[in-house]
Predict the structure.
Amino acid sequence: MKLLIQHGRVVDPVSGTVSIQDLYIENGKVVQLEKDIRQEADQVIDADGLVVCPGLVDMHVHLRDPGLTYKEDIFTGTAAAAHGGVTSVACMANTDPVVDNPEQIRYVKDKAAQANGVHVYPIAAVSLGMRGEEPSDADALKKAGAIALSDDGCNVDNANLMRDVMIHAKRLELPVLCHCEDTTMVEGRAVNEGSVSRQLWLEGRPAIAEEIMVMRDAMLAEETGAHVHICHVSTAKSVDIIRRMKKRGVAITCETCPQYFTLTEDEILTQGSMARVNPPLRTAKDIKGIITGLKDGTIDAIATDHAPHSAEEKSRPLTRAPSGMVGLETSLAITLTELYHTGKMKLPEIIKRMTYTPASILHLSSKGRLSLGSDADITIFDPEEVWTIDPEQFASKARNTPFAGREVKGKVKYTIVGGNVIYQDR
Ligand SMILES: NC(=O)N[C@@H](CC(=O)O)C(=O)O
Ligand SMILES: [Zn+2]
């Protein structure tokens, strides 16, 4: 399969450059990258006016497979990824059973190999059954193909267990991905602690519940030397803590998600359980802190925390509905609309946080880059196309997004994995 992509605005997130170039792809690799390539090809894509960038790498996705496949499965989840321009996903272990042993890692990898080509990298649980009591067998999990450890969905309350896991993870060079929310401060609570929780007479999940655990895990990272990655950062103060810890030389990285730089807790008032997510949507001040963190590089990555739930589950009242929202099919468009079209960030800086940095954090050394010789995982999008988010069009099984009906600017046109077009917008 030979593919020629002509006249696109090629974004290289490593050098931070944008230039009009052609790409010639053979055997799954970029073999030529220059102006006016003259080569015979099986397929030619005219990318005039379009952006050509590395395939997006989403390091925080819930594929719900095994066991929760009424919400999503590996086939529909990777189809959603392809729709969203995402060519690599790392999937969380909070399935049923939990991915805490090599057999489950193999299940995910085998099923993903029969899907549409999107690369699926399983993350293994920190603790057996994600119960926070006994550590999983990190050596065996790594051997089977786990690329990181995380009990995401749950905070690891036991600091002693977390420290032991980090000592192990350091030796194995596995990053530890932390869902930071002190359980005692958030259990059974649906929304941010603040004006909305007071209006609704609900107990809230305070910002400090997140920040205190970000601080703890950063301190454990400093002590153990392990690479700690903070998942879905949602508060301004979490960003400040991480910035300070990075300055101290701690091996800490972090991600945020589109919902945390676009939406506030007020969404709960109009959208109810559809806007329920952990950590919860916060305040305008937090959004400001998150965007500052994205701009200055404190926040390394933009992930989705794609968390599919069924229509029935999300139709329950706020306090009884599960937390989470889908994101794979809207992430790029929302990010471009909020950060690029507003002039807050430049294109290569945005793309870097959706490709090169998450790939680096997960040691996926051949992903998230677009240069001569690199893997031909490529996303092509029209940065100017305006469209309206319609969950009925999703490839995901789930429809739970608070962005339904929102007008966005920037549309995925082609998703290419290993030189094969796996999604084309028509
Ligand atoms: N973010 C969420 O609200 N929910 C996620 C778990 C998680 O990422 O914490 C889920 O698995 O549904
Ligand atoms: Zn989480």
Residues 56-361 form a domain with the TIM Barrel fold (CATH 3.20.20.140).
